[in-house]
Amino acid sequence: MFNMKKWIFILPLLFIGVGLFFAGKSFYYYSKSIAAYHFIENAWEDTKEKKETTKPWTWADFHPVAKLQIESIDLQCIIMNQISDEALTFGPGHLSRTSLPGQPGNIVIAGHRDGHFHKLNSIQENDVISIEGINQSDFYIVTEITPTSGQDIYWTEQTETDVITLITCYPFHYIGEAEDRFIVRAEKMDTYSTLQ
């Protein structure tokens, strides 16, 4: 026989239990991401200090190669050495066949539009991009911002001038896999003080 009084007591406890489960799960993932960020920051500091590759944890399939900062859009993140799924979970990645930070040519960095590179939707021409490499920091001024086809590989090709190319999926608020790309191209500056 159905006991209404019993269910009036049990249902709220059941909802509280389910709520606590999902809150606990969210807290777990949030704590995990905070811990991962600190491990990656420490790996980057060790890399700079020792001048050698340092993984954030022993089983990681990636390591940090630079630190990117764009003050105008409040973006700061560590750049990983590749664009594997695991690496892009924790930060933008360097496209392997392009110049490394600190080298001449085209440095290409890709990241998720719903992750670290979401703030690129607010970037403007003449904004300054800072790249901290192992040996030096370089500054770039944004010269081009353009959406393009995902099939357009022009932006990843080597250049005669020193540039940095940031790539993410486009449009930013699209649900699912976006086929287009959002490109930010910036040219290296001789001295940062020229704009200060």
Shape: globular
Strand order of the largest sheet: 2-1-5-6-8-7-4-3
Q: How would you state the average pLDDT, rounded?
A: 86
Helix content: 25-40%
What is the CATH homology-level superfamily? Sortase
Number of strands: 8
* Radius of gyration of CA atoms, rounded to a whole number: 22 Å
CATH architecture: Beta Barrel
Strand content is 25-35%
- How do the SSEs run, as a string of H and E? HEEHEEEEEE
Largest sheet: 8 strands, mixed
Chain oligomer state = single chain
The level-1 CATH class: Mainly Beta
Based on secondary structure, the structural category is alpha+beta
Give a description of the structure:
The chain has one domain (47-195): Sortase, Chain: A (Beta Barrel). Helices cover 27% and strands 28% of the residues. The chain contains 2 helices and 8 strands. An 8-stranded mixed sheet has the order 2-1-5-6-8-7-4-3. The termini are far apart.
Summary of the model, kept short:
This protein is of the alpha+beta class and 196 residues long.
Keywords:
196 residues; alpha+beta; Sortase, Chain: A; eight-stranded mixed sheet; 2 helices; 8 strands; 27% helix; globular
Topology of helices and strands:
Layout lengths: L3 H47 L13 E7 L4 E6 L4 H6 L2 E2 L11 E5 L17 E5 L4 E13 L13 E8 L9 E9 L8
Parallel strand pairs: 4-7
Antiparallel strand pairs: 1-2, 1-5, 3-4, 5-6, 6-8, 7-8
